[in-house]
Amino acid sequence: MTETKSPRGRLFLMMVLEFFIWGAWLPLIYSYLPSLGFTPLQQAWILSAFPLAAIVGMFFSNQFADRHFAAERFLGFSQLVGGLALLGLGFTRAFWPFFALMAAHCLLYVPTLSIVNSIAFAHMRDPQKEFGLIRMGGTLGWILAAWPFTFILVDWARVRAAAPAGVAAWLGTVLGSGLTGPALRQATRWTFVVAGAASLALAAFSLALPHTPPKKRPAAAPSAERFAWLEAFRLLKHPFVLVLWLITFVDAFVHNLYFNWTGTFLGAAREAGGVGIPGNWIMPVMSLGQVSELLTMLVLGVVLKKLGWRLTMLIGVLGHAGRFAVYAFFASAPWAIVAVQVLHGICYAFFFATVYIFVDTYFPKDVRSSAQGLFNVMILGLGVLAANTFGPVLMQSVYTVAGVTDFRSMFLLPCLTALGAAVVLAAAFRPPSVRGE
After folding, report:
1. Is residue 140 within 8 Å of residue 294, measured between CB atoms?
2. How far apart are CA 157 and CA 151, in angstroms?
């Protein structure tokens, strides 16, 4: 700890704002991009800006933040410039300007996902006990990002025509008048405006975060690698680290197919195989997963101590298989599709959050930030890149024929993939029982 007074409140709010930004624009972008007239290839390019930024961040931004800049200052600068780029996205419809602004935002935002973890870990006494509680702020931020759109993505002409009398009647009319079709896709641009405003707010708030100085390479250690990411990569020679790294790629791929396909699936008409949820309720329904994540994070520390690393992660991976199985076989039961969103929290907390804690436990202190970046290459980089490259093509060109999408066959793909990853994890992941520096 660098301060006598605990900074947990500030760290919690930092996480709230950090994930509010991402949660505001991500869920609906997959249906928004086709409405701008972008081809599947152009959509893949735009969606790939985020994972490519994660990979670049591993070799560039994370390196600078880890050993050359105070983490909170790097966070503030990145959110200031990235927030302005997000605001621009709300008013851009041409491909190349849209791609350039998205690339600028992602190159600056993605590294901060590791940086906020580094800031949090630097100011915690017991990471296994405290990280789940602080990271809960990120989950809350994602939930909060969904709910303003129940009032933004509304057919206000319909509300005015209904002329409801009284607050209760007005509120019921608004909540029941969600946009659909082309009007919904056009209004989705406001997701970028809201995300940009949150990014600027975090840039200002970073001035109040506890100071987290750069970790300089010790001059007395001539054998130390010049680049921290090289030191992190060297740890892949341990089989248990390599296995987890590869499983992380598969899980990230499956995890991001959920984001690629769920919004469209929820909004599609029932006669077309979808769930038929109004546009202003798609994000709140998806946010039920983050509500579950919020509760799951509360018990993560206890679960880790009781079940251990492997079993906890295994439950997280199997959660994906269960969710996509329900998508595939119970699309005609909207209540089941809504209820199964709660598995998202288990998928995230029991696998990805556990991976972050595992990295902090097993990696040497001087490369932990870069080690977080190493796994973020899979969680936010290659796994997302694979999902965002193949997701639009699979949905629009493989599983959609004559305008009708075969959702069942499409969702069986990530279901079976997750089952395969669970088998490998159970059979091959054998971490040592004690920490080895």
Report:
1. yes
2. 13
* Three-state secondary structure call for residue 261: helix
What pLDDT digit, counting tens, does each position of 354-388 carry? 998 888 887 777 667 667 778 878 888 899 999 99
Which residues, 6 or more positions from 45, have their beta carbon under 8 angstroms from its beta carbon? 99
Q: For 249-273, how does the pLDDT look when each residue is reduced to its tens digit (9 = 90+)? A: 999 999 999 999 999 899 888 888 8
d(Cα 274, Cα 265) in Å, to the nearest integer? 5
Look at residues 372, 360, 70 and name the one whose alpha carbon lies nearest to residue 229: 372
Please report the pLDDT score of residue 366 as a whole number: 66
Q: Letter for the amino acid at 55?
A: I
Q: In the numeric block, which tokens belong to residue 156? A: 């206000």
Q: Is 158 exposed, middle or buried (0-12, 13-18, 19+ CB in 10 A)?
A: middle
Burial 223-250 (b: 16+ CB within 10 A, else e): eeeebbbebbbebeeeebbebbbbbbbb
- Residue 260 makes CB contacts below 8 A (sequence gap 6+) with 30, 387, 388, 391, 392, 395
Burial of 400 (0-12, 13-18, 19+ CB in 10 A): middle
Q: Which CATH class is domain 8-153+188-212+226-428?
A: mainly alpha
d(CA 110, CA 49): 10
Q: Rg of the chain's alpha carbons, rounded to an integer?
A: 21
Nearest to 421 by CA among 281, 172, 171, 243: 243
Q: Identity (one letter) of the amino acid at 389? A: T
Q: How far apart are CA 216 and CA 230, in angstroms?
A: 15
Extract the tokens encoding 272: 């077309």
Listed residue (216, 246, 180, 248) closest to 369, CA to CA = 216
146 in Cβ contact with 283 (< 8 Å)? yes
Count the alpha carbons within 13 Å of 365 in the hemisphere toward its beta carbon.
5
* DSSP letter string, 45-80: HHHHHHHHHHHHHHHTHHHHHHHTS-HHHHHHHHHH
Q: If you ran DSSP here, which 8-state letter would residue 236 be given?
A: G
User: CA 281, CA 226: separation in Å to the nearest integer?
Assistant: 50
